[in-house]
Write a structure and sequence with these properties.
With 958 residues, the chain is of the alpha/beta class. The protein has 30 helices and 39 strands. Among the domains are: 292 residues, Rossmann fold (3-Layer(aba) Sandwich), CATH 3.40.50; 190 residues, Dimethylsulfoxide Reductase, domain 2 (3-Layer(aba) Sandwich), CATH 3.40.228.10; 112 residues, Barwin-like endoglucanases, CATH 2.40.40.20. The radius of gyration is 29 Å and the shape is globular.
Length: 958
């Protein structure tokens, strides 16, 4: 589907025509095929796919039109008033049957895609239509069958069987027009023409990004998931939500023998059936033999050695030398007893908890409730602190809400799309498709980033600014808008506070003055500012390249100012959108999994709010903010005399021993805890430092809701049973709560998930009051704010007012603040960390997917060609990257999008953990670490792992 649903309802004009002798109405511009389909009339079709541009090349859908000599393809031909069409005339049917017979005659004896699980229909939709049209292939046609091309099995995820290809062009449109990856095309001519990848490369060697859109589009099995070639018979199909990023694509699991054998994209509001490589092919992690299946307790006398993590191989690590198996009763009783003992002996500040953005809203809500009511403090946080905490701080301060103003696919209404500090084709691939689609319709993308990434291929202008100069560049854009009279004075006068202070502040930030600092020519800065201000709709989308700095909040303040002084907010195609990284980081934050706020961002220091929650939860609550992720690590290592020294932790679904900055410090802190409980699905680096490890369920093994980057609350359904004795997170939290003396009662299926959701809905007051559990079961996805049962939800917010006290945006001027650590003679390079397409977060899930780890198996550091030459290196060489905190040995990759003087390292690889290098310096407002900038040195050599991965064998001891 090449465009999202329109935001504004329109009254469609209709025209009357005759179809098979019956008068029917079609919408103005509607094709004969679609009109017939709406009226229950089936016309054979193969090249047509709902949502794709009609192509008309297969000719299976031809119809007879009165007064016309030739038959017309109904998928391409629009209805006109008074038209008389025969879809089932003898002539039309004979032609349809002939097309089907000729295509079927070229099919191989053994098909690849059984339609509707019927072995007799081995060629997918072609076999189905042939059966429905009573078509069989004559022997004389079978004798003319073409020479069968060999299968291409070079790709880890997909099989190419051109013997089954009917050249319907659906895969080409899927690749070029839907996903806009431009990999699949036609080569050669006439009878020799065929589908090719790039310049006729094997699929596995091409530039294919493995989104699988072509697989989902193919009607005959010429393109198939390798896991499902042949029989597609499954036990059940279960609808859910993809857990691999914040876009929130809806999916359908195909399950056989309690195993997910394949995944289809579902027509959800965020993805319209599209998926990326992770969502399509990454779910085998749930079936990894390395899953935790029993509770584990550390053996007496076995020390916690953080240094050992550096030498740990996930394939050969033997947990049985460190832990023993235990019953659930023993593990839960030990956990609760130790945590209660620390609380009662040292005070309520002695405990802390890290929840998860990878689980459900209900889990996040119950987790923070347990910490606040059972532990007795607000020492609860999660990975939002490490991704968009600074963005949220600026948004709450400026517009009164930390969520997005417009949804991603609203770029369909934008004239200019400003992408800054984000690599959407890798981190939010489906969101990137909407941006690329918008460009095809005439929109302009401006990419602003120290790295030139793949979205730059589609950019109108690329602003490759010097790392750490965001404020300089953004203030120059704001200066230009004001200086050239492009500011929306009417919007400013009615809806903006503190404009004069902003205007005064940017006087020293002219493009001419900032060009030498940020590295962008003044004329380019002015040109971009003009286009942004003059566009009918200009949307800003940003990622962690903006937020993960000591000046991350200031960066976001500048984006808010740029958007509001130009009036580019509160209308379609405009607004502010921080792209959320994890699948439920929005929902977990909404649910209160943050130390300074109760659910729905209600501050713990607000006396009225505090009193309301004490009454709601029937217990006394701490009235002071808790500590954040990095602060908690510091408090663990605080002296014994510190009354807030943290001594015990409960960590659910987070891996701070890989995700925190300055890992040597973080691992030392975790190892120093008197009691650490880790609840996860794998033996993560953090779990190796635990006293008790509790085996939990993976996302496909549970029912619950998540909230995506677009403010959509979405329901995921349990598809498979968990392995061994692994238990749902909701069950574990409730069991611990009971053992800590809390009297909770959540009746119902799936550990009372619906009852937990209803309590959370009440705790969030009006934000999701119109989104009941029953409504989610009907609709799967509902956008908030949603105030009533008949409220469709607000796709665009701030149309009339902002969520601030006076309804006006509060501008906060920003000045240049340098990074905490700058390059020098000893550490001359800048390290930038981030993610890559095939892997997610710390890799604990995606690197246990055989397909994903086969596509991208090895940790690499990216350097530009000029730096490789200067260092005497070639792609594939081993280098050692060293900071003031640690070092990693890693293979080098050439990437000319990486600027000179910088190195990019993804943080998903335990064998080359990038966060051993990063700096724990914090943004003072969002308390987010500076992952995107620290000084490093690079030298040739070192001992680097070669595709260490997480292979299919089980963990030793399991």
């Amino acid at each position: 589907m090449n465009a999202p649903a329109k935001l504004i309802e329109v009254t469609l004009q209709t025209v009357e025509f005759k179809l098979d002798g019956k008068s029917i109405h079609a919408y103005d511009g509607e094709t004969i095929f679609k009109a017939a389909e709406r009226h229950g009339i089936d016309i054979p079709h193969l090249c047509y796919k709902d949502g794709y541009r009609p192509d008309g090349n297969c000719r299976a859908c031809v119809v007879e039109i009165k007064g016309e000599r030739t038959l017309a393809p109904s998928c391409c031909r629009s209805v006109t008033p008074g038209m008389e069409v025969q879809a089932q005339s003898e002539r039309a049917v004979r032609s349809q049957q002939m097309v089907l017979e000729m295509l079927l005659s070229d099919m191989p004896e053994q098909g690849y895609k059984w339609n509707e699980n019927d072995e007799a229909l081995q060629h997918g939709e072609l076999s189905d239509w042939a059966a429905r049209m009573d078509v069989t292939v004559r022997p004389e046609l079978k004798a003319l069958r073409r020479e069968q091309p060999a299968a291409d099995l070079s790709h880890p995820a997909m099989a190419v069987n051109l013997a089954a290809c009917i050249q319907c062009n659906r895969c080409v449109r899927a690749c070029r027009e839907e996903q806009v990856n431009d990999v699949i095309g036609f080569a050669l001519r006439g009878a020799h023409s065929e589908i090719v990848f790039d310049l006729n490369d094997p699929m596995g060697e091409s530039s294919c990004v493995a989104c699988g859109e072509c697989v989902q589009a193919c009607p005959t099995g010429a393109l198939m998931p390798k896991t499902q070639v042949g029989s597609q018979i499954v036990d059940k199909k279960v609808d859910s939500v993809c857990p691999f990023c914040g876009v929130g694509c809806l999916v359908t699991y195909n399950v056989k023998d309690n195993k997910i054998v394949s995944v289809d994209g579902r027509d959800g509001p965020a993805n319209h059936s599209r998926l990326c490589v992770k969502g399509r092919f990454g779910f085998d992690y749930a079936h990894s033999p390395q899953r935790l299946v029993k509770p584990l307790i550390r053996k007496p006398g076995i020390a916690k050695d953080p240094e050992a993590l550096r030498l740990l191989n996930r394939n050969t690590g033997d947990w049985s030398a460190v832990f023993r198996e235990a019953s659930w009763e023993e593990a839960l009783s030990l956990t609760a007893g130790k945590l209660k003992g620390l609380r009662d002996t040292h005070g309520k500040k002695a405990l802390a908890g890290f929840g998860s953005a990878k689980g459900s809203n209900e889990e996040a809500y119950l987790f923070q409730k347990l910490v606040r009511t059972g532990f007795g403090s607000n020492n609860v946080d999660h990975c939002t602190r490490l991704c968009h905490a600074s963005s949220v701080a600026a948004l709450l301060e400026g517009v009164g809400s930390g969520a997005v103003s417009n949804q991603v696919n609203d770029v369909a209404h934008s004239e200019l799309i400003f992408v800054i500090g984000s690599n959407p084709t890798a981190n939010h691939p489906v969101a990137a498709t909407w941006m690329k689609n918008a460009v095809k319709r005439g929109a302009k993308i401006v990419l602003a980033d120290p790295r030139i990434t793949d979205i730059g291929k589609h950019a109108w202008r690329t602003l490759q600014f010097k790392a750490d100069t965001d404020v300089a560049m953004l203030n120059a854009l704001i200066y230009t808008v004001i200086d050239e009279g492009l500011a929306d004075q009417d919007f400013i006068s009615k809806r903006v506070n503190n404009f004069q202070a902003l205007k005064e502040n940017v006087k020293g930030y002219s493009p001419e003055a900032m060009a030498p600092i940020c590295g962008i020519p003044a004329r380019t800065l002015r040109e971009v500012a003009r286009e942004f201000a003059k566009a009918k709709g200009a949307m800003i989308l940003w990622g962690m390249g903006v937020s993960q700095h000591v000046h991350g909040t200031d960066n976001a303040r500048c984006l808010i100012a740029l958007s509001t002084v130009t009036g580019q907010i509160g209308k379609p195609g405009s607004g502010l959108h921080p792209l959320r990284g994890q699948n439920n980081v929005q929902g977990a934050s909404d649910a209160g999994l943050i130390p300074m706020m109760f659910p729905n961002y209600q501050r713990v220091t607000d006396k009225g709010v505090h009193a309301w929650f004490e009454d709601f939860w029937s217990t006394k609550l701490d009235d002071q903010p808790g500590y954040t992720v990095v602060e908690i690590m510091h408090k663990i290592l605080a002296p014994e005399s510190d009354p807030h020294k943290i001594r015990g932790m409960y960590i659910m679904g987070e891996n701070p021993a890989m995700s925190d900055p300055d890992l040597n410090h973080a691992r030392h802190a975790l190892a120093s805890l008197e009691h650490l409980v880790v609840q996860d699905i794998f033996m993560t680096e953090t779990a190796w430092l635990a006293d008790v490890v509790l085996p939990a369920t993976a996302w496909p093994e549970k029912t619950g809701t998540v909230s995506n980057t677009d403010r959509m609350v979405q329901l995921g359904q349990q598809a498979i049973d968990p392995p061994g004795q692994a238990k749902p997170d909701l069950w574990i939290i409730q069991q611990l709560a009971a053992r800590m003396g809390l009297n909770w009662n959540y009746p119902g299926l799936h550990e009372g998930v619906a009852a937990v959701y209803d309590e959370m809905r009440r705790a969030m007051h009006t934000a999701i009051s119109g989104i009941t559990w029953e409504r989610l079961q009907r609709e799967s996805s509902v956008t908030y704010p949603c105030l009533s049962a008949d409220d469709p939800g607000a796709q665009t917010v701030f149309i009339d007012r902002f969520d601030t006290e006076d309804g006006r945006v509060n501008l906060v001027p920003a000045d240049i603040i340098p990074a905490n650590e700058r390059p020098d003679a000893d550490f001359p390079f800048v390290l930038i960390t981030g993610r890559q397409l095939e892997h997610w977060h710390t890799g604990s899930m995606t690197r246990r997917s055989e397909v994903l780890d086969a596509i991208e198996p090895m940790a690499t550091a990216s350097l530009c060609g000029a730096d490789l030459l200067a260092l005497g290196l070639a792609a594939g060489d081993v280098i050692t990257v060293q900071s003031r905190r640690g070092e990693v040995a890693i293979h080098v990759r050439r990437d000319d999008g990486t600027p000179q003087g910088a190195v990019f390292i993804p943080f998903a690889y335990y064998e080359a953990a990038a966060n051993l290098l990063t700096n724990a310096a914090l943004d003072p407002f969002g308390k987010i670490p500076e992952f995107k900038y620290c000084a490093v040195a690079i030298r040739r050599g070192g001992t680097a792992s070669l595709a260490a991965g997480y292979r299919a064998q089980g963990v030793n001891g399991g």
